[in-house]
Amino acid sequence: MKRNTKSLLKFFLLSAVTVLITVLIFRIFKSVNYVEQAHLVGLIHGAQPEESQHVNHIDNEKIDWHDLERIRRDALRKGLGEQGAPAYLSPTEMKNYDELYKVNGFNAALSDKIALDRAVPDIRHRGCKTKKYLKNLPSVSVIVPFHNEHWTTLLRTVVSVINRSPPQILKEIILVDDASTKPFSRKPLDDYLAANLTKSRVIHLPERSGLIRARLAGAREATSDVLIFLDSHTEANINWLPPLLEPIAQDYKTCVCPFIDVIQFETFQYRSQDEGARGAFDWEFFYKRLPLLAEDLKHPTEPFKSPIMAGGLFAISRKFFWELGGYDEGLDIWGGEQYELSFKIWQCGGQMVDAPCSRVGHIYRKFSPFPNPGKGDFVGRNYRRVAEVWMDEYAQYLYKRRPHYKQIDPGDLTEQKALRERLKCKPFKWFMEHIAFDLPLKYPPIEPGDFGTGEIRNLGAPEFCVDAMFKGKDQVVGIAECVSDTKKVGEQNFSLTWHKDIRPKGKSMCLDVSDPNDKADVVLFPCHGMKGNQYWKYDVEKQWFVHGGNMRCLDCDPGQKRLYVRACDMDSKTQKWRLENVNLTMISNWDNIGVA
Ligand code: UDP
Ligand code: MN
């Protein structure tokens, strides 16, 4: 009996354990399935969820892609420009400095002395160094359009891509020679690549087509899953590819941009421009950048959404690129294509991110060395095409600032408009409200008026007003007797603009204080619209002009006729100023105007 009870107990215990294990296994299996399905939503090349059911969970495996051996060897390199250090030519090497500068807009003579495979500094966020990426990444075709690019900067682009890309991912590099006239651009280049850099080849365009059609020509020949476009004077940094590719592997409608570092045009020093920002534009279509969102700052190594790409450097799946019709072929030479593609990506169902762990250096030229190829205002025409097709009612804000765009013939737009219809792309208003939602705060489509205008009269010495008088050729700012009393001449009509700066009305010189000391002089300086030294807030109740930075108040010494800032003091009469016309509604909304 005792034995029986024991074995019965054993039996029950065993059964319980078996059931428990089965349930556990089942649950684990189920949760793996969930992970898979979440991941599969946008598997490589947009596989539909039905297809995805069969994909093994191994597809989620992540690995460390760093080429440790190369990193170790690079770290040991010494020499001119190595590790991205600023470099200089010796006096004997300056022979063709001027000549090469003129045709390139950067120090090409120096480039010739720096190794093609120089080491660049690893300036990625430290978290990038331990990050793993999907083991299964799509294949890559790199496309580099060039027009009269200098020999060594072009080759350094190719060499850096080959050296810093996993060979199994990098399938080809397609250079597109946009009818260059430099003698080495044809046969010598073909021969050099065939002998030394076999993954690369050149397409020679028969006539100057501009960078947009050159990129298209390259894209048409490309055979990989992902197209990566680069400028012809760039250097890929450590482990640049995996962070660009993973977001595309997860969702083929994601376009990914690397961080663009600065290769200084004079010294070839390699440095960051900053730690990331979201791309944008102002209403003259100058490329601008907006700060990262609080959410983005929490994950400094994760890709963040960006409304507009800088233009020259990005990765996009070949499938999505062609679904979007590539670029508008009607865009000529240079300019506006970054807006066209960014608008299309967002409005037509895709998204764009910047990947902080992918960095590529780019030579920002000192000046553009290329003459206009006899095509008139091609930039204006490109902008007009983009605005007409994609920007709906917002196009008017561009035309308001550049009325002559309305006179430019944009050419035939039927195909572009049909594409927008066919892809059922969203209105521009959607883009502005959901993607570039903070752009209008910094760059308002309709500029708000001024917070206040007119004379700025001191209350401690009421005969004195702020005056931007001329001393010889120089315009300076101080105080003088108010001209509305004396009827003398003076420059006393000021605007407290929506930029939150103070300028003589209609001028672009601003009241500026850079000195942190007591009684720091107020000077006139070209307006930069960046607040800081030029920020002034009018406190209607206290009648103070409070200066930004370390919070001081506009003050004056009537005896010495000096205008300066001092620590704000409730008892000071000379810190009180009456601004002639104040827009109280606007002032009460101070914090919501011109921020971002
Ligand atoms: N480019 C081109 N054809 C042109 C103009 C430019 O192929 O008509 C190439 C150029 O060589 C470079 C890229 O397009 O690789 C971008 O041009 P650029 O670097 O002059 O523009 P930026 O970077 O100065 O805006
Ligand atoms: Mn460039």
Automatic annotation (TrEMBL):
Q: Name one GO cellular component term.
A: Golgi membrane
Q: Which domain of life is it from?
A: Eukaryota
Give me any GO biological process, just one. Answer: protein O-linked glycosylation
Localization recorded for this chain is: Golgi apparatus membrane
Query: Where does the sequence pass through the membrane?
Result: 7-29
Q: Which reaction does it catalyse?
A: L-seryl-[protein] + UDP-N-acetyl-alpha-D-galactosamine = a 3-O-[N-acetyl-alpha-D-galactosaminyl]-L-seryl-[protein] + UDP + H(+); L-threonyl-[protein] + UDP-N-acetyl-alpha-D-galactosamine = a 3-O-[N-acetyl-alpha-D-galactosaminyl]-L-threonyl-[protein] + UDP + H(+)
Known InterPro entries for this protein? GalNAc-T (IPR045885), Glyco_trans_2-like (IPR001173), Nucleotide-diphossugar_trans (IPR029044), Ricin_B-like_lectins (IPR035992), Ricin_B_lectin (IPR000772)
- Signal peptide feature range: none
- What top-tier enzyme class does this entry carry? transferase
Q: Which CDD domains match?
A: beta-trefoil_Ricin_GALNT10-like (cd23439), pp-GalNAc-T (cd02510)
Its annotated pathway?
Protein modification; protein glycosylation
One short Pfam name that applies is: Glycos_transf_2
Q: What is this protein called?
A: Polypeptide N-acetylgalactosaminyltransferase
Species in which this protein is naturally found: Acanthoscelides obtectus
Source taxonomy: Eukaryota, Metazoa, Ecdysozoa, Arthropoda, Hexapoda
